[in-house]
Model the fold of this input.
Amino acid sequence: MSINNQEKSFGRIKVVECGWGVSAAYAGKLLADIGANVIKVEPLGGDITRGWGPFPDDERDPEKSGLFVYLNTNKRGVVLDSKRPEGRKLLDRLLESADILIHNIPFPDREQYGLLTSDLRDAHPRLILTSISMFGDSGPRAHWRGSELIASNAGGWAFLSPGASPSPELPPLKTFGHQCDLQAGLQAATVALAAYWDRKRTGKGRCIDVSEQECIVSMLEMNLMHYSYAGRETSRLGRRAVGPWFIAECSDGKIFLVCIEEDQWERLVEFMGNPHWARDPLFKDRVARGENLDALKALMTDWFARWKVADLYIEAQKRKIPMAPVYTMGQLLESDQLRQRGYFVELDQPGLGRIKLPGRPSQYERTTWALKRPAPRLGEHTEEVLCGEMGVSASEFETLRNVGIV
Amino acid sequence: MEHRPLEGIRVLDFTWAWAGPFATLQLAHLGAEVIRIETTTRQICVTRSIPPFADNQPGANRAGYFNQYNQGKRSITLNLRNQRAVEMVYELVKHCDIVTENFGAGVSERLGIGYSKLREFKPDIIMLSISGFGQTGPARRFVGYGPVVAAFAGFFSTTGYIGGDEREIGLSYPDPNAGAHGAFAVLAALTHREATGEGQYIDVSMVESAVSMMGEGLLEYQLTGRDPVRNSNRDRVMAPHGCYKAAGDADKWVAIAVSSDAEWRSLCVAMERPDLARDERFVTAEDRKNNEDALDKLVTDWTCRRDRWEIAEMLQNVGVAAFPAMSNKDLVNDAHLLQRGFLVMKTHPEVGERTHAGIPWKMVDSPSEVQSAAPLLGADTEFVLGSLLGYSREKIKQLREEGIAA
Done:
């Protein structure tokens, strides 16, 4: 495919991203990585993730935050204070030529930031206005505060995690990172892109209200229906419905095993050399193996201990037995499968040097996914965008800078 | 606007289990017409055959798992082992914009419905394939269930209690994550088609889409030389930040996330402990991180004597993010989610009105509701073959008698 085609489809989509943290930034990243022109608007002190790290050698530096860099490659960065009238006017000028706005200003703070949905809609009828909030823009808890931890609890995920836990004294457990924020961003980008595609037919914008809590409730497997279909409450405690299903210890690390189908168990038994205990009625079917998992684990301990993770993973999967290494980050970066598919991408990020970043989450035949530009330094493109593209004069810019708007 | 963004877009959907149907559910939510092709010969979709069933009575149309992730779609049944059924697929493809599948890598080709074949009948078709490890590379034929992928992608090694082992994450998270990324990729491909006239193939690896959510951990390893430390519900910067035991003998917990020193002082006021606001161990976020064990104990002393909702409301009223750890029962009965119209109860011919998760976003002035309950197995065979291919009732009856359709 030609670069021209790519530019025809995505280079002309102009996206403005405001707010802070992870959700809006991931939405912006998804669009930027396929070529959209994404302008990230940061407050004067910079985005909050600039302070979150991880940092090289754990030394705080707003230009060296790993989380910020991961989320903001391919974007240009503008700093302006939209809480003040002059800053708000600049934002409006920026939005005049934008196709999509994605922001995650909390519902109760929107007026203060000049980002009320009703005002924006009146001023920019063609804009795809996409707001992400913790609980949505309506309902009795619209004004409540949230965060990643709150979302994973309010959305029902934490209550189910880690699952099959024997320890009621240990709390519901958040999954690593900012998964709930990322999912809200992914939904927002998808709906915004659908609305943009449709705008070609209608010429009209849309106002989209994404609830992060609802994004998580939408992905709880069959847990809601355990209650609404069968009156059963579920939690992180109890047993697996089927087995074997556990993390096992090899001689040099951990491996994960799960057998869902009977034939997978049969092949595992054969692979283990048909030990006599495998025919015990305690393990007669997958449900029984779930119920008697502790006994099963104990009997398999020696067998696992004879293996190295990498060898067992390959030998088991050759036999269609579902296992995978419990990879650490360092091991994941060395994955043969990911290397052969050219997944990880190297990028020179000022201040961090050459780093490896996650590559395309989807492999396209024609749409080009690329990391072309490092994450912006704080305010790196303010002048370029304001003066070069919005017609702000040099003297006007100087004034804005002196009074602390940009 | 009266119409939904993807109205007029038609999807021929061969997906099964969770990841694939989760992708096409997003497209159905956005207004696309999704036609599920279900099989008469192979095992029916796994989600139609596992609990929970309505009132604990098994049945292909009674499974909550299927009925959740296939809302708003149509279902036709075809015997794809029969060449005439495959030829009917070719005819149907001519009327479709998108084809989706998540068989094992290479299976769609064997069934005669691979991308290169379908392109002969619809040159600008967009085809989405989702698989565990991707369509290429040495692991392409490995079994990639969601939990297996989560182990591989580093979720287990980074999630866990303080000082504890690697833990699972409660959900088969890589499935909906791959599905949601697949839906985004389809929108990107539609945008590309609009600009260039070209269709394309999309290869989503559950592993790669999951690793795309691991940027924070991958950078921590590269920037600090250390894998992320399993830290229960704690945050890198914020404290207090946890899921705390609330009053009641059952499993009741409340999440609290304090993101600033001002919020900490508000929490102290709510706890009626003004002395703690002055306590030098807890003045700044850094102080609180350094004394987090003591801090968590003080917070637990307060929470464990109070109702989780009382705590959440009290803290939200002073601007501190807090929320109970929600169970499936809590969510199904939640006033906020009901009032938002997020929880839906569409009438289903066999199971009646059951609570399901609806659409996690809304559009102002546009319809954004689930259109219908999940389809009965083969409910739309006659309608689809009649309306798209012009088949008469007699012809469909004959196809059924010959075991080609059902």
Q: What stands out?
A: The domain at 245-327 of chain A is CATH 3.30.1540.10 (formyl-coa transferase, domain 3).
